[in-house]
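User: Predict the full complex structure for these chains.
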Amino acid sequence: GIQVEQSPPDLILQEGANSTLRCNFSDSVNNLQWFHQNPWGQLINLFYIPSGTKQNGRLSATTVATERYSLLYISSSQTTDSGVYFCAVDPNAGGTSYGKLTFGQGTILTVHP
Amino acid sequence: NAGVTQTPKFQVLKTGQSMTLQCAQDMNHEYMSWYRQDPGMGLRLIHYSVGAGITDQGEVPNGYNVSRSTTEDFPLRLLSAAPSQTSVYFCASSPYRDYQPQHFGDGTRLSIL
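Assistant: Here is the predicted structure of the two-chain assembly.
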């Protein structure tokens, strides 16, 4: 099956710093999503981004499907950004996921005040 | 609109016991799925469903059964619990439309003694 690798595995920042998280995948995908798992364990969908660039406040994401990677940018980080960031993909053709996502192992982000 | 609701939030079982993890969604989503998350790992797909009466296996289906009699509900059954099934279980749903993100429940933390 498809392989998803995220880097770095751990990241420690001071509040206000910027960061870039990377997701590499081993096969073509038509569905890529970024999630934030907060310290309470809840999974929040950040972006649905099989290609192109999207922005939502201090967060933005870019997926270059032809080169099989995606980047998540966090600017002016805050302590509430702490948690685990997951990239998840589905190689199924078309834009429909059918709920079958393959997750990377995540990047653990810690933001200190 | 409650989204995806999982019950119970916590459960402790003895080896060999059976139980059902409940998942309900009120968004009329066609697709539903179950994942497990083990320490330090991303989520892995157990079973999924593309609609009432239709289910299929994911990456780690052994030891689990599912059924989908209604659009709203997708229970996960452990017939004979084993310590290896100690994990956090997440249920997710998404609609039958292209480019729609997955919505996750808050998880069930299950310990098998």
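The two ends of chain B are 36 Å apart (CA to CA).
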